[in-house]
Every structure is written in C-alpha cells, then in structure tokens.
C-alpha cells in the first residue's frame, strides 16, 4: 500500500492504495466519484476522461499513485458550487449532444480541455480534438455544434478582445428555445 | 359553436430540451455499475480460450484458497440447476434448439464462453483468483464458415446434433397468394441479374458495458441490469429459474445504449443469479470491453444471393433471395427470427409482382448473433438498394429513374405488397424530390461526368438509398403467425396525483431515446398540464409492471398510442367530476386547452388539478364516481409502422490509395408527425453513423481457430468524430393514418438507409474501373483491391 493525497473536485482525500490501482478505480471505488465511468480497457473510448491539474487524462490509463499530490476535476466537480452549469455542460444540453449519456462525462471533460487549449476551434479541430472519445449514439454532429457553441459562450464571458469582431461560427438556425431548468 | 380559449403552444412538435440530460451531464447517473448494496460481493468469469473443446478437467477449489474469495464454481457444479438460456423465436416447428447453458458444462462452443466463476470481496480479488482455476481442454474441430458448416461431413458445433443447420424458412408469394411465381418471372425476363452480397459480422458496441447486480436475499429476487428488456427479462427469469414471478423484480436503471445488443437474456445475468443464491449475498458483475466484444451478442453476418428479373425498361418482374444466416454457436433470444424481419422488406418501396425468400440458419463456433439496430431490415435494404443500382447500370438508366419506375406512388396507398404487408402511407416522390434538391443531385452528376472525363484520380460517386422499413413491433397476431414467443402490445398508465401533478408509467424501457421528454410532451398536450409537471417512470417492474420494452422502433409507435389512449381515459374519468364542480350535466362539459368548461362558456373552467383534488378529498363526489382519475391502457397495434425516406451520399474515392471520404450526405426521412424534432434528428444522426460504420469501418473478425481478432476497440473500430461527416437531415411528413399522433418509428431508419447509400456511392465512383461491388467494410485496402481486380482503366 502506498499513501497518496488527491484533491478531487475541491476536496482533499488521503488514502492508502495498492500501487496497481488505476486512477479511475480509485475515483470510483474509494472516493465514490461514480460520475466518471469506464467504457473500455484499452484507453480507446475516453469515457473515463478527467482533468488532472486542468489537463485531460484518461483515468483508466494512469495509476492512482501517479496522481499523488495533484488536483483532479471530474464531471461532478465541473458545475459551479451553486449548481450553475459549465458552458460545455449547458451547450451539450442545448444542442442535444448526448443520448444515452454514457460517454458524456468523458466527452465533456475532453471538450473542456480542448477549449482550454484552443478557445476558438473549427469544426475539424473539434472533431480531431475529440478523436479519443467514442460516442455510439449521436454521430458526433451535435457534439461538434455544442463544443463550438460553448467556445463562443466562453469567449464572450471572458470578454475576449475580439468579442466584437464577427464570429467565425456560422449562424445556425436557432432551434426553438424554451427555458428549461436543469 | 366552440369557444376558443387561449391555450399554451402545443408541446408536441417542439424541440424540447431533454429532461434526462440534467443527471447525465453532471455525472449523477444511475448506471448498474454504480449500484452498491450492503454486503455486496463481486464476480469474475473465466472464459474459454478455445472455439470448440471438451472440458476434460476443471477444478475451481484452488481459487478458494486465494485471498478474499468467498465462492468459486463451474458449470458442472450447477449443471442440474442452471437451466438453459431461452430462445423466444422458434421460427419453424423443427428448429434445432440445442441447450444453451449459462456456464458451459462439458463442452465449449465459442471463444469467450463462460466456464467458471469466482465470487470475492472485491473485483480485483475475483479477477486475480481466476488464474488459480485449473481447466484442461481437449480441442475439437472448429467450424466458422457457414457454408462449410452446411456442407456434408462438416464438423458439428453441437456434437449431440446431426447437423449444423438450425432451420430453413421460406416465403413464396405464389404459395402465399400475394403475388406471382419467381420462376415464371425469370423465364419471361429480358434482364436477369444475379449478385451475392455479404453482410459482415458486426458488434453493437453500446458504450456502457453490460452490468448486473443481483440481490437474492429473503425470498425476493431483485435484479438490476443494463438491459433493454426488464419486463421480458422478469418473465423469462420466472420461466427459466422457476422463481415465482411475483417474487421477481427487475430494474433497468439508466442504461447506456443498446442498439439491440441488450435485447437478450444473458449468460451473465443467469450466472449472477446463481452466484447470489449460492453465497446468500448480493453480487455484482460488470464486463470488461473485451469480454463484451467477445461474448455479448453480435449482429448481421449473412450471405445474400439475389436473382432479380426485369424488363429492359427497368420494370422489375421478380426477386428471389437465398439467405444464409450465421446464428453463432447458440440461438439468441430472437436471433433465428432476425432474417424474418428482413424477409418482408426485400421488395422495399417497389411493386414487385413475384418474390421468393429462402433462409437457412446455421450454427458455427462463433458468438451468437441476434438483433442489432435494424435487425434484418438493414440487410434487406442493403441488398435491394445495391441490386437496383446494378439494374440501372444494366438497362442504362439513372438509378433514381429505375427506382421511380418501380416504386409505389403516393396515390396508391394503402398498398398491399408482394409480401402481404399493407403499407399504410408514404410519399416516396416527395422525399426523393426534397433529397435531390438538398443534395444538388444534377450538379453532382455533372461534376462526376467532368471528373470521369478528365481521368481525375479522385473520383466522385453518388449513392442512393430509397428505403422503407417495417417497425413499431408489432401486431401480436402477426407475431404469433411467425411463431414469435410474445405479443407486441405496449402499456401506459397515468397517475393523477392530488396536487394535479402527473406520473406516467410506460412499459417501454429507454436507454438513450429520450422517453422522459417525449412522453412528457404528449401528456402535457393531452391533459393540459405543464411539461414540468409530468414525471415518467420506466424500467422497474415494481412501478412499471407491464411492458414489452424497447426495440424495433416501437416505443412511440406502439407505446405512444397506449399513452394517448390512457390520457383520453383520464379525461373521460374527470368529466363527471368536472361536471359536478361546474354544476352542469356531464354532456355539457367540454375539455380543451387544459380546462373543463361548460360548453359555450369561455370562463370559469376547472382544471384537471381541480378534479384531482376533488377525487382525493372525495367528500362530495356524485354517486358511482370512483375517487381516482388514474387510467391504464394496453394497446396492440393493428399494423406495423412504415417510415421511409431517401438518403443520398456523395463520396470521393482516391483511386490510388483506395481511401473513401464522404463529401456530402443528405437524409430526408418521413416518420410521419414528429413529437420532438430535435430528438428525431438525433436519432437520424446516430442511425446514419452506425450505417456508415458498417459501410466503411466495422467488422468482427475471427482467425482460423475461432479467436476473435477484433476483441478490443483497438481492432473493432466504431468511428470517432474525426471519421464522420456532418450530414444534412430533413423530413417530409406523411402522417400515419392509424396512429393518434400520426407518428412512425425512427430509431432504426438511419441505420437501415445509410449503409447502401454509402456503398452505392463507392461503387458508383468506381464504375469506370470495371468495379460492380466492394465488400463491406469498404476499407482503403478493399477499395484498392477492387480497382485492381476491376479490369477497367487504371
């Protein structure tokens, strides 16, 4: 057993773990962060994606001990403490970017990381940036739309200097909007 | 005269954002794997490394000496009690039905078959202890190829049987009296086209691995499972285990996709039941992805031999189909019947005068095959849409023109086909015209001409799929006539709570389809309540005790019908209560816009909530009025649902590398009226993606010894975002005349339509190279090889 300390979604956890324990197993089985899921065993599907010190990692592909001393953000820690959704979460909801939702935690975390690297990605950059996350339900089209919408929202919120410039995002036909509380 | 009162905009038809999303985007989802019960133990399963072998020695006792291990057992330990996994679709009287033990007893018949189990305190300990189990196998001859399996002298998959052939099933329009004889059609034909198509083996590859939790403590059996069919499963558990049905509760919590792949009673579910009873504590089993790809049922894997007879003007005279279906080592729950769901669809949207379909189901030493999105209909649609293109080439017509000359025109509905099905509605002309316009069909054809003329190494191909399908499974009498083991009805219950909030109980069991949202929209309109005031309950046999679950694009087509009926019953029950509150005669009460009013009086109405409170208190109800507004309905459909559409695909094929890129894709689908266009579009996107995946990317492959070479997502390759294009999705709307909402099924249409559209495009691009087929999936290697073999220009 090895003693490790993780900050997960803002809470400190000190645990003794078997060195072979995967980060995702530790998150799920010990810390109880079952919002992060396992979809494969070869790191292809990305369902287990979390942020480690702000950068996306597939938590099935690293050991818990490797995360010692680091901060982990899971899908459960993405919304603000008051419950306000992260722009990527909101965009996934608005754009119907999920159906069964099993890939969604990983897909959202990967998208958050993608937008941190590239705040204004093209469709192609989104598709290539999310290549490591498989979805079987949506055909990805609405995921791409959602990520680009979130990018716009995040740039606007950050008051980017070019916020006044014409957006490169093509104007999409606005679907009928209703207020929905989630 | 009807008084029109202001009413909210209708919910049905609006792109409501989904209720389901709130938990799914925040990681608060109840997957089966997330369930932890007090005292729960974990299972690991030892699986066969061989495709066919006799188990000569098996000792689980060494595993019991490993740390944290509570129990270990093999098939032999439970041989007398484990029963067999059921097949609910014995398609013929003489179907060969070998016993399918959850745990192999003496023989294994495919790699991945379960042979022994360890139950331990934690999952890692259970997996570790598998290594301590001693097993010796004596290899037996393996047969993987279905034509070899049918040949004289083939090794037998089931050594206690005399053949690998499970059944032969025939439909002949002359014998059925629904059409002519195909032999006569062929004899009188100017053109006869014969083709062999191969539907490769696919794996549904739902994202959530299968998982099951069983609590068998006390005399109650509670089973949580990542299943599409909690209701069917409860019934089957009663039959297979002998447990009284009223002591069984099955719960499908949030389920992460299915696509037919979770339409099964699985060995793993039964093993978990056996284990829980053995140890007297709750147990959990969750498969790894590798286990899933190896042992969850596969799909397709069919050889199709077609003979199409036609006149030189492109009019089809007859179609003969000989189909060979690889069933795998055992019969799945509905596996033998999957080809039958295609049998009635080979005539597609066309007026064929004569048709004969012969199907043989074959056992091989492979994982069993069963329903996968579309189940039989993608196979049929692929074959007919491919061969219609061949006919077009043969008679020198545009492929859309050949289709137009054969299709049922919109004035001809209802139309009874050569299979005896009555298509209720459709407008193939309208869908095709819309698709043509969105696609710029003529412009792309002109570009294709230019690129052919210039010898462009990157050729443009245009693929067409004018599909229909039969879904909304299904009229129970028809199912009975096909020897299916269950009915096709669906149920809905409405509970009107005292405060006027509504609980809806549906017997269909969603796993990504968005029932909670769509059902809320329907109920909101029917009962005049707010969308937010409706809660939809499903997937738990304790709350939703009656149901036939979700598959075959049936939930809205059948379950939606029951839902509307139940709502109408609620209104009928509320009317006498409203009349009493309004102090009028019940015949003077009308219900519209969510209010009961005295006919002709726009003001002073009573809401459903007023009536609900009145029956709750029940202090002052008219004599004979039951103090509840709750109502149930069970609806058995009178017909299948027949969505249709036209999908057009343009591909660019690099003739030097064989690489295929989809340049544009237009899907125009007619699913009748639409409850939620956002959800429908999502179903089209996802359906098309899976059909494209069959056309270009996916194939389950065994080596010569029966080892699955595509046992991980490294080798079995569902497409990523980078592999797929944006598509244009649009609709035409021909309401289903018999459905109260006018809706048709949409769950499978995209998958059914898209595979032939893509492959037709690939082949179309390569016609100048002498290519008339590329086997699926059309990988660069296969495309390049087809060009080399084509003998056309290089």
How would you describe this protein?
Chain B: This is Molybdopterin-dependent oxidoreductase. Chain B: Keywords: Molybdenum, Oxidoreductase. Chain B: It comes from Rugosimonospora acidiphila. The complex is a heterodimer of chains A (182) and B (794). Chain A contains five helices and five strands. Chain A is an alpha+beta fold and 182 residues long. Chain A has a five-stranded mixed β-sheet with strand order 2-1-5-3-4, sandwiched between helices. Chain A starts with a strand and ends in a 25-residue tail after the last helix. The relative contact order of chain B is 0.13. Among the domains of chain B are: 21-28 and 489-635, 2-Layer Sandwich (Aldehyde Oxidoreductase, domain 4), CATH 3.30.365.10; 424-470 and 639-794, Aldehyde Oxidoreductase, domain 4. In chain B, 28% of the residues lie in helices and 23% in strands. The longest helix of chain B is centred in the C-terminal third of the chain and has 28 residues, at 555-582. By secondary structure, chain B is α+β, with helices and mostly antiparallel strands.
The CATH homology group name of the domain at 424-470 and 639-794 in chain B: Aldehyde oxidase/xanthine dehydrogenase, molybdopterin binding domain
Give average pLDDT of chain A, whole number.
90
Q: Which residues of chain A form runs of ≥5 with pLDDT under 50?
A: 163-182
Largest pleated sheet of chain A: 5 strands, mixed
* CATH level 1 class label of the domain at 424-470 and 639-794 in chain B: Alpha Beta
As a percent range, the share of helical residues of chain B equals 25-40%
In terms of DSSP E residues, the strand content of chain B is 15-25%
Q: Helicity of chain A, in percent?
A: 25-40%
């Amino acid at each position: 057993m090895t003693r490790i300390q993780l900050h997960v979604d803002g809470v400190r956890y000190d645990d003794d773990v078997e060195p072979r324990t995967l980060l995702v197993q530790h998150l799920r089985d010990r810390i109880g962060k079952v919002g992060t899921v396992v979809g494969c065993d070869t790191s292809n599907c990305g369902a287990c994606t979390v942020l480690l010190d702000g950068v996306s990692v597939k938590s099935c592909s690293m050991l818990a001990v490797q995360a010692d001393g680091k901060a982990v953000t899971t899908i459960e820690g993405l919304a603000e403490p008051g419950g306000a959704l992260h722009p990527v979460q909101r965009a996934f909801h608005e754009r119907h970017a999920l159906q069964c939702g099993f890939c969604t935690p990983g897909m959202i975390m990967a998208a958050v990381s993608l937008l941190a690297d590239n705040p204004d990605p093209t469709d192609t950059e989104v598709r290539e940036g999310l290549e490591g996350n498989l979805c079987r339900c949506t055909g990805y089209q609405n995921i791409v739309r959602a990520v680009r919408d979130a990018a716009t929202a995040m740039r606007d919120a950050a008051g980017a200097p070019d916020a006044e410039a014409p957006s490169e995002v093509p104007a999409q036909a606005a679907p009928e909007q209703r207020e929905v509380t989630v | 005269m009807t008084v029109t009162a202001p009413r909210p905009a209708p919910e049905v038809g609006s792109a409501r954002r989904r209720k389901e999303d709130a938990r799914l985007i925040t990681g608060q989802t109840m997957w089966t794997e997330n369930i932890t019960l007090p005292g729960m133990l974990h299972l690991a399963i030892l699986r066969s490394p061989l495709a066919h072998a006799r188990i000569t020695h098996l000792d689980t006792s060494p595993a019991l000496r490993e740390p944290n291990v509570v129990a270990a057992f093999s098939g032999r330990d439970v041989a007398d009690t484990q029963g067999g996994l059921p097949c609910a679709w014995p398609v013929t009287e003489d179907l060969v039905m070998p016993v399918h033990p959850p745990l192999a007893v003496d023989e294994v018949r495919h790699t991945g078959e379960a042979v022994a189990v360890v139950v331990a305190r934690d999952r890692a300990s259970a997996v570790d202890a598998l290594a301590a189990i001693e097993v010796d196998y004596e290899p037996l001859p393996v047969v993987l190829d279905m034509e070899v399996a049918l040949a004289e002298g083939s090794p037998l998959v089931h050594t206690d049987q005399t053949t690998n052939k499970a059944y032969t099933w025939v439909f002949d329009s002359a014998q059925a009296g629904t059409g002519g004889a195909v032999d006569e059609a062929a004899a009188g034909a100017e053109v006869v086209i014969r083709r062999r198509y191969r539907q490769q083996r696919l794996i549904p590859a739902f994202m959530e691995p299968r998982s099951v939790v069983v609590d068998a403590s006390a005399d109650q059996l509670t089973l949580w499972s990542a299943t599409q069919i909690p209701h069917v499963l409860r019934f089957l558990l009663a039959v297979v285990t002998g447990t009284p049905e009223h002591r069984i509760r099955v719960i499908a919590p949030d389920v992460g996709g299915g696509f037919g792949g979770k339409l099964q009673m699985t060995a793993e579910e039964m093993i978990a039941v056996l284990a829980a009873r053995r140890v007297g504590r709750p147990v959990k089993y969750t498969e790894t992805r590798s286990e899933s790809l190896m042992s969850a049922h596969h799909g397709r894997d069919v050889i199709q031999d077609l003979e199409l007879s036609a006149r030189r003007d492109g009019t089809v005279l007859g179609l003969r189909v000989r189909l060979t279906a690889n069933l795998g080592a055992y019969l799945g729950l509905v596996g033998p019947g999957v080809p039958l769901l295609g049998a009635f669809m080979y005539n597609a949207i066309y007026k064929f005068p004569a048709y004969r379909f012969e199907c043989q189901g074959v056992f091989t030493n492979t994982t069993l095959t069963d329903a996968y999105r579309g189940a039989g209909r993608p196979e049929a649609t692929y074959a007919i849409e491919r061969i219609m293109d061949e006919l077009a080439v043969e008679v020198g017509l545009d492929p859309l023109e050949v289709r137009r000359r054969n299709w049922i025109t919109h004035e001809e509905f209802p139309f009874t086909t050569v299979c005896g099905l009555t298509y209720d509605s459709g407008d193939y002309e309208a869908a095709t015209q819309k698709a043509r316009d969105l696609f710029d069909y003529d412009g792309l054809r002109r570009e294709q001409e230019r690129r052919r003329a210039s010898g462009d190494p990157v050729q443009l191909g245009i693929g067409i799929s004018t599909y229909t399908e039969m879904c909304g499974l299904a009229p129970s009498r028809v199912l009975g006539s096909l020897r299916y083991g269950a009915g096709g009805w669906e149920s809905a219950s409405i509970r009107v709570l005292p405060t006027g909030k509504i609980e809806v109980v549906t017997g269909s069991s969603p796993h990504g389809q968005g029932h909670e949202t769509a059902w809320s929209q329907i109920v909101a309109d029917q009962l005049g309540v707010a969308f937010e005031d409706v809660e939809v309950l499903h997937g738990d046999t304790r709350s939703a005790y009656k149901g036939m679950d979700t598959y075959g694009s049936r939930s809205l087509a059948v379950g939606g019908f029951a839902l509307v009926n139940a709502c109408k019953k609620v209104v009928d029950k509320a009317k006498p209560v409203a009349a009493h509150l309004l102090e009028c005669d019940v015949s003077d009460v009308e219900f519209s816009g969510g209010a009961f009013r005295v006919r002709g009086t726009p003001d002073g109405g009573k809401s459903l909530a007023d009536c609900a409170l009145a029956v709750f208190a029940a202090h002052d109800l008219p004599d004979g009025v039951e103090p509840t507004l709750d109502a149930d309905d069970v609806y058995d459909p009178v017909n299948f649902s027949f969505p249709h559409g036209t999908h057009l695909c343009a591909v660019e094929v690099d003739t030097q590398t064989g690489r295929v890129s989809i340049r544009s894709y237009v899907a125009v689908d007619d699913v009748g009226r639409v409850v939620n266009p956002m959800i429908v579009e999502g179903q089209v996107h996802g359906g098309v993606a899976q059909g494209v995946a069959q056309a270009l990317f996916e194939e389950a492959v065994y080596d010569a010894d029966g080892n699955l070479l595509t046992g991980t997502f490294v080798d079995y390759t569902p497409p990523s975002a980078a592999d797929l294009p944006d598509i244009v999705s649009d609709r035409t709307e021909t309401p289903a005349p018999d459905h109260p909402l006018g809706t048709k099924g949409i769950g499978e249409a995209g998958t059914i339509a898209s595979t032939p559209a893509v492959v037709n495009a690939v082949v179309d691009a390569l016609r100048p190279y002498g290519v008339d087929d590329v086997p699926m999936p059309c990988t660069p290697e296969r495309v390049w090889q087809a060009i080399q073999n084509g003998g056309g220009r290089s």
